[in-house]
Amino acid sequence: MRELKIFSGRANPELSARICEFLHLPQGLIALSDFPDGEIACKIEEDVRGRDVFLIQPTCPPVNRNLLELLIMIDSCVRASANRITAVMPYFGYARQDRKDEGRVPITAKLVANLITRAGADRVLAMDLHAAQIQGFFNIPVDELSTLYILVRYFEEKGWINGKKEKINDKTLPLKRA
Length: 178
Fold this sequence. Notes:
9 strands; globular; about 25% strand; Rossmann fold; five-stranded parallel β-sheet; alpha/beta; about 180 residues; 2 domains; two-stranded antiparallel ribbon
């Protein structure tokens, strides 16, 4: 774990702090600020050479700002010679723009995948992507975590789900423990 570094963007520092606390790892030192004209400044404030780096930055609203901050963080780690860079994106902005449903419209989810890859990410860790095909938009590994089982357990404990098997998002789940 000595080789592992976890850095947080400004989109959700509380989540990053809780992840680091759970893993018993210190949060990486990073300086993120804004220039007077609104541009984002980033400096990794510790050695990441040869280390595996995890950048926790959802691209939630303001989507464009948080996405650009993630791209800048990735580039900073590439230039600091990190061994492997994983973008941890609990929310993947532009995921709903995942297909051409009419003429003259972009597939923006693919564009965002290209930007993240081109910036230098080696892997993406996302949660509950809008559509399965988004994983295929990347030329790097994508790990999609699902919150479905946690939510089912929560609703079950609250007594909001009956005892039979239910079909949720095309997945049949046993909703009562044996």
